[in-house]
Design brief:
heterodimer, A: 1108 residues, alpha/beta, 7-stranded antiparallel beta sheet, 39 helices, 38 strands, 19% strand, B: 363 residues, Glucose Oxidase, domain 1, Rossmann fold, 2 domains, 10-stranded mixed beta sheet, 7-stranded mixed beta barrel, 25% helix, 29% strand, globular
Chain lengths: 1108, 363
């Protein structure tokens, strides 16, 4: 049916900041949707608070709003833009929930906006647990026994009726947050309480546990003519009990019979019809009893999801694009399949390979969190690998998640060695089995240990309920190790003796050169050379949606060991872009954004773009982002293979974060040419000694520092430069194992931690500049001329990781003299390093002196933020500079200082890690970011807080408890709050300081000493904001409790004085005047593009001073 | 054990055999379905083929008698990438390995089936024969053997596939309506669907004459699926010609081609054929279609039906526009080129329901 003509303007809601459970997959789906809508000629309005997305690039939508994703701001946008329809199914749970609330509050009706893709009735049917259950039973689909609880007492009654174990799922929550398994009454009570809090509608589903059942997923699409197609089946290797977002997943399902498969298809069709999706896709999750095949439905997502992104990348079928076209009334037969170029989207993709998805966790960032995985998602990223068998895909998958492992063990990094496993003690066996029984992020490796120790497949199955087929495949790899080890060298310098057919077989099962070198007691280069000598190299096969039945126009590639090369490289001038791999804390969507821009720039310059990445959630792994895409792990071996085949003129390593940058030197050594800033300059910036020499030469300041390998050395350094000191390992991103140490007694522990992470490199020790202001600078250069992209002032003081700190562009409190110094220093260093491309510098400013903290000759995480704030695509221009264009030709001649203010705020995953303290420090903990943009700092800051999910109050009660050091500063804040009509509650110490300054305070008892205490008040909703600064590295028990309850009850909070000041200032603005909405296009309209060279005072510029 | 699959055009694929056996020659065809290996191996329509599965991991869920579509294995060879070492499904009673051995199926594993499939797609020759051997690895000699086999006329598979005598299947439903199924290689899943609609079925040998069929007084006739371009089919065409317009007819896959020929239409070989579970078909006048299971290498030529007034084309393949369904209300027949598989849970494919309605109208 032709597309709808009654709709002209469509509003799309993005998913906001990257959080656990809602990653960059929605940038992928949203971008595809924007493109699809515009292709069909619809006027597209996009709202998203996340600046680090491709979808918010001006040009993707007709109008782009970077505004908080709240009902209030959406209402304003709807009133202003008057869209005919809203497309809520591509922005994750956030987008869907917002649309739902807009409907509930009558806003859609008031402005005549229709929900397309999934009608509101479909959303309710899938999301409202009770309606869903009723609907499923109506069409003969079994559901686990369950009941809906809206109160604690009700939940307990239902739970006891069903019997333990029980699964608890709060309604309308993304990524299963708040979900838990209860084995007894105490746990039931505990989790119910939490779940009721977490659910925005205060509903918890109490459900019969289907722990250990097979978890099968189907991606289904339906159009308005009632055509239904299956995109793919997926089977979770980790059975029910582990959130599918945390599970290892394979596609297609491996252990279903044809009859079972058909039955699942039949159910999926019934379900998507009953739920009532009339133009879009759904993800359906089933549980299946492995002993009798009994199927129950777990849930339906009536929208694009993480799984649909995976299904899309696994099969080549662009689900988001097609879903969007279906939403505007087209049918599947009318939408072309762009991969084949000759068939339509009305077909079901089929594959001739095995797809493996594995998750990236960051438990190391949250040492107090329990290292187990369950029904509440904890993974921060994922990687996808493709192989011709499960074994190959498994090994490539493990390499892809960049946990310094090079396959399924046998790479010299196994915690439990083969010697220990040859005759394992009972204690060891027990601990291995425990690690298999209780799901955790290392379970795969423990299965290997168990197999090595002779534990049977059946026993491992009983412990884990992981299907025997998967375990047997793992066992085949373990057995293969023994075959290889027969040819182990005594001496590392000996020639390799492994027979060539065996080597070929090893490669076909996905063994890396690193693993083989370890098993054979040789070197990676030697194994590689041997393979080369015997023509053992991978060929590249296609992801073509059809298992080879049709020739493919726009396929992508994966490596495998087969007989015929299908990639057929062109003779064009081409460049390889190395992507960032799986998302993790410290390296996320910002870098994918940059990689995509590199690709766009190459296209514009007529150079063939070749992307290498393994992250299925990203835009960079979309089939049409680059000319060619290789879905491969980002290790030296895998990259070199691609480079040898493609023979590019160069490789871009600047944009994928630390992953490709770490490979720069090895790539250079292998003769690969690195585009942009040279590998030598990269080394100067990364090598501490050379860096110091450069600073001396340029006469720039650096905090006093030293390096150490041992505690003794560290003590010496610290004594010399004086406490407090900042301790950190070399070569890491995101401040891993970074600590501020105030006294010698604590030094030893942190040195040990840092040394572990640092490996063979020394631990770095810097003088810590207390209360300094941090500044981030992004710069673009062509080797001769350099232009600053943006200077950002951090809100939080030095000592908090720059990735976690809020920051503002333009700066708001720096003196012209300091700014002058910052600019001069930046240009000096850029010149010295001959920066071609991007560079990021971090400074600390103390007593008007500018200290250089760090220089990164690569794209930083702030590049998308700066680009959106100043309206210039820095990464794209930097790519062109790398290709030899001059900045002048590109029209980049001077620093743009915008009239408006943009504030970047970070978003944290604390709600996923119960018990973890929420204070900020030098180790990065945030998963995502939002941007607040407005005419002045106060509003921009408040918008950033709202966008980050803080429910900033304009009245009510504020609880204040700060460390002694902050007591002076907090007086001003409290005074202001009181003036604005807030009531102040405080702990006794803080109260005394406030009372001395004539502020009315209600003193609350210490938690252990009396009630009602602050926890009780928070629970009763009587505290609208908490200001709490940590007393020290080892916090007091009360503080931790207060802070964890703040997360539990979602009370707005700040843990630094500077953030508290900014918040209070923002509240002041908010009370004076309601917030408005303004699109990026309006901010950057060329006619108004007047560059200011000298910044005029923003309303808040004085707040740093007011601190004193 | 080392083995080779040699194609007639001289392209060879090495692999491993499960056991030594006589050399087998047959048409090499690939199927893109991910599951259903046992069903495909026991489908009589695949008689004489060398069957290639493009999905690389085969045998994972084992085999069980309930999944047999007939009493035997029909292809002359099987080509796969990786055979599962263990079986993992609660219903499995046997491994694929044992199943293959039990049925003496020539099987070659560890073959680069992707390259093979792409080669078959790009082949210059439409009817590509191949040979599986574990004893001879000389390309020339193997190709010569294939060429020689072409000189010998192919015997009909139908006598081996079809029931030997008119057989009435037992029914649990007392008031079931009687229909006849002309057995060119009918599968159990077709029979199950007919029974589910309340029919009781009489199976007819493929050569059953017109008069014998009429004498049975069935309410309708199903012409089943079976091997294409079989020399025995000519006789079937002649036998059913007089029945058109007399009995309601449902003709399935090869049966559909037989029906078209009886109507005066022409059947020709396709370049690649349709073998898989993901083929879209729809009425050109409607946006609504259906994803179907298909397993055929021949197709009814659309132009040949144009001159036959009574025939209405009710569905075409969305990819290549070939004919998927024909129907005549007046002459009471439905022909489906696709395979009307059950949609799951023993439900019945809509083609059978339409046929049942046609019978009800004609009673």
């Amino acid at each position: 049916m032709p597309k709808r003509k009654d709709i002209k303007k469509v509003l799309m809601i993005g998913s906001g900041p990257i959080v656990i459970g809602q990653g960059c997959e929605f940038d992928y789906s949203g971008s595809q949707a924007c493109k699809a809508l515009r292709e069909e000629g619809y006027f597209t309005i996009l709202v998203n608070s996340n600046p680090a997305t491709i979808m918010t690039d001006p040009g993707l939508a007709d109008v782009t709003y970077i505004e908080p994703l709240t009902v209030e701001s959406l209402t304003k946008i709807i009133a202003k833009e008057r869209p005919d329809a809203i497309l809520p199914t591509l922005g994750g749970q956030t987008g869907l929930n917002l649309a739902f609330f807009l409907m509930k509050q009558g806003i859609l009706k008031k402005y005549g906006v229709e929900s397309i893709g999934a009608p509101v009735s479909a959303i309710s049917c899938a999301e409202d647990r009770e309606l869903f259950k009723k609907a499923m039973l109506e069409i003969g689909v079994d559901v686990p026994k369950s009941g809906i609880a809206t109160s604690l007492a009700q939940g307990i009654k239902i739970g006891l009726g069903i019997g333990f174990p029980l699964i608890l799922r709060p309604a309308y929550c993304l990524g299963g947050s708040g979900g838990a398994t209860a084995y007894n009454k105490e746990e039931l009570e505990k989790f119910l309480e939490k779940g009721l809090e977490t659910s925005p509608v205060h509903q918890v589903l109490v459900e019969q546990s289907v722990l250990g059942w097979k978890e099968i997923e189907f991606e289904v699409m339906r159009d308005c003519a009632d055509n239904v197609i299956m995109i793919t089946s997926m089977e979770n290797v980790d059975p029910m009990g582990v959130h599918t977002g945390d599970s290892i997943v394979v596609a297609p399902a491996q252990t279903l019979t044809a009859e079972e498969y058909n039955n699942f298809v039949n159910l999926s069709k019934r379900i998507i019809r009953r739920v009532g999706i009339t133009g879009g896709g759904a993800n359906i999750q089933f549980g299946q009893n492995p002993d009798n095949g009994h199927i129950v439905i777990i849930e339906v997502n009536p929208r694009l999801s993480r799984s649909s992104a995976l299904a899309s990348k696994a099969t080549g079928f662009p689900i988001a694009r097609v879903a969007t076209k279906l939403a505007v009334g087209l049918t599947l037969p009318e939408v072309m399949n762009q991969i084949t170029g000759k068939t339509t989207s009305f077909f079901e993709p089929t594959v001739d390979y095995c797809v493996f998805k594995i998750c990236r966790f960051t438990f190391e960032k949250f040492p107090r969190a329990e290292r187990v995985i369950n029904t509440s998602m904890k993974a921060v990223g994922e990687a996808m690998s493709i192989g011709r068998n499960f074994k190959e895909a498994l090994q490539k998958g493990i390499r892809s998640i960049e946990i310094s492992r090079f396959g399924f063990g046998a790479d010299g990094k196994d915690k439990i060695t083969d010697q220990m496993l040859a005759q394992p003690s009972n204690g060891l066996l027990k601990s291995i089995k425990d690690k298999i029984r209780i799901p955790n992020d290392e379970r795969l490796f423990y299965i290997r240990y168990a197999l090595k120790a002779g534990v049977s497949i059946d026993e491992i199955y009983e412990l884990s309920k992981i299907d025997r087929w998967f375990i047997d495949n793992m066992k085949q790899l373990v057995e293969f190790e023994d075959r290889v080890k027969e040819f182990r060298n005594k001496n590392i310098d000996c020639e390799l003796r492994i027979p060539i057919p065996l080597l070929r077989e090893a490669k076909a099962d996905g063994f890396s050169d690193r693993q083989l070198a370890f098993m054979l007691n040789s070197k990676e280069e030697k194994v590689r050379q041997l393979g080369k000598d015997h023509a053992i190299k991978p060929v590249y096969k296609l992801v073509d949606t059809c298992a080879g039945e049709f020739s493919a126009k726009q396929p992508y590639f994966y490596s495998t060991q087969e007989t015929q090369e299908e990639a057929r490289p062109s003779n064009n001038k081409k460049v390889v872009i190395l992507g960032g791999g799986p998302n993790r804390i410290g390296q996320g969507i910002e870098f994918d954004y940059c990689c995509c821009h590199a690709s766009y720039a190459l296209k514009e310059e007529g150079v063939e773009s070749i992307m290498v990445n393994c992250n299925p959630e990203t835009v960079s792994t979309d089939y049409d982002t680059s000319d060619r895409l290789y879905f491969e792990p980002l290790t030296l071996e895998d990259i070199l293979n691609i480079i040898e085949l493609e023979k590019p003129i160069g490789v871009i390593v600047q944009f994928g974060g630390q992953t490709p940058l770490n490979l720069a030197v090895s790539l250079r050594k292998s003769g690969v040419s690195i585009l942009g800033t040279t590998a030598d300059s990269i080394d100067i910036a990364e090598d501490r000694k050379r860096f110091q020499e450069m600073l001396h030469k340029l006469n720039l300041l650096q905090p006093a520092n030293g390096t150490a390998f041992t505690f003794e050395e560290a003590k010496e350094v610290a004594k010399r430069i004086g406490y407090p000191v900042l301790v950190r390992p070399s070569y890491v991103l995101g401040g891993r194992a970074m600590e501020i140490v105030y006294e010698e007694t604590l030094l030893e522990r942190f040195i040990k931690e840092a040394a572990e992470v640092s490996g063979e490199h020394p631990v770095l020790i810097d003088k810590f500049l207390e209360d300094a202001i941090e500044v981030d600078v992004d710069l673009i250069g062509d080797g001769e001329s350099f232009v600053i992209g943006g200077i950002m002032e951090h809100i939080e003081e030095a000592g908090i990781h720059s990735g976690d700190s809020a920051m503002a562009l333009p700066t708001f409190s720096l003196s012209p003299a300091v700014l002058k110094q910052v600019r001069e220093s930046t240009y000096k260093m850029a010149k010295e390093l001959n920066v071609v491309g991007l560079m990021n510098v971090q400074y600390a400013i103390k007593d008007e002196l500018v200290y250089v903290l760090e220089v990164n000759p690569r794209a930083s995480r702030t590049v998308p933020f700066v680009s959106k704030a100043i309206g210039v695509p820095l990464a794209k221009l930097a790519t062109k500079a790398m290709l030899g264009k001059k900045l002048k030709e590109l029209g980049v001649t001077e620093e743009i200082i915008p009239k408006h203010v943009a504030v970047k705020e970070s978003v944290f995953p604390f709600n996923r890690f119960p018990g973890v303290d929420i204070i900020l420090g030098p180790e990065m903990k945030s998963t995502g970011e939002v941007m607040g943009i407005d005419e002045d700092f106060g509003r921009a800051y408040i918008k950033s807080q709202l966008a980050a999910g803080q429910r900033v109050p304009v009245k009510g009660n504020v609880f204040i408890s700060v460390r002694d050091k902050d007591k002076r500063a907090v007086v001003f804040i409290a005074k202001k709050l009181q003036d604005m009509g807030f009531s102040i509650y405080a702990s006794s110490g803080t109260a005394a300081a406030l009372e001395n300054n004539n502020i009315k305070v209600k003193v609350l008892p210490k938690i252990a000493e009396g009630r009602p205490n602050v926890l009780d008040l928070m629970k009763d909703g009587l505290i609208q904001m908490v200001i709490n600064t940590p007393s020290g590295r080892i916090p007091r028990e009360d503080e931790v409790k207060i802070r964890s309850h703040v997360v539990l009850y979602n009370v707005p909070y700040t843990t630094t004085i500077s953030a508290a000041q900014a918040t209070v200032n923002g509240i002041e603005m908010l009370i004076k005047k309601d917030l408005g909405v303004k699109s990026l296009q309006e901010y950057h309209r060329p006619a108004k593009k007047q560059k200011k060279k000298v910044k005029k005072g923003s309303l808040c510029q004085n707040f740093r001073k007011s601190k004193l | 054990m080392k083995a080779i699959l040699m194609l007639e055009d001289g392209k060879g694929f090495s692999g491993e055999a499960i056991s030594a056996g006589p050399e087998k020659i047959g048409e090499v065809v690939f199927n893109t379905a991910v599951v259903g290996y046992q069903e495909m191996l026991t489908t009589p329509a695949n008689a004489g083929k060398i069957l290639v599965f493009t999905y690389p991991l085969i045998g994972n869920y084992g085999c069980a008698p309930k999944f047999n579509e007939s009493h035997a294995v029909w292809p002359c060879g099987l080509v796969i990438k990786e055979k599962s070492r263990i079986v993992s499904n609660w219903q499995a009673t046997q491994s694929l390995d044992d199943f293959i051995k039990e049925h003496n199926l020539s099987t070659i594993t560890k073959v680069d089936t992707r390259t093979l499939a792409v080669h078959l797609r790009q082949k210059s020759q439409i009817h590509m024969l191949g040979i599986i051997s574990t004893s001879c690895f000389d390309a020339k000699e193997l190709v010569a053997k294939i060429k020689d086999s072409r000189k010998v006329p192919q015997p009909s598979f139908l006598p081996g596939i079809s029931v030997k005598k008119i057989t009435t299947l037992k029914t649990s439903k007392p008031k079931a309506k009687k229909i006849a199924v002309l057995d060119l290689g009918v599968t159990k899943s077709i029979l199950r669907q007919l029974e589910a609609l309340g029919f009781f079925v009489t199976l007819l040998p493929y050569g059953t004459g017109t008069a014998d069929i009429v004498r049975l007084k069935p309410l309708g006739l199903v012409i089943s699926d079976g091997p294409e371009e079989d020399p025995g089919l000519q006789e079937v065409v002649q036998n059913i010609k007089p029945l058109i317009g007399v009995l309601p007819v449902l003709a399935i896959s090869t049966g559909h081609q037989v029906l078209a020929r009886a109507l005066g239409g022409q059947v020709s070989r396709m370049h690649l054929g349709h073998r898989g579970v993901n083929y879209p078909v729809r009425d050109p006048l409607s946006w609504k279609g259906e994803i179907t299971v298909q397993n055929h290498g021949h197709v009814v030529e659309a132009y040949s039906l144009q001159k036959i007034k009574e025939v209405k084309i009710t569905a075409r393949n969305s990819n290549d526009q070939t004919i998927e369904e024909i129907e005549s209300r007046r002459l009471k027949f439905i022909g489906v080129q696709y395979y009307p598989a059950s949609p799951g849970f023993d439900e019945v494919h809509p083609a059978f329901i339409r046929f049942a309605n046609m019978i009800n109208r004609s009673i």
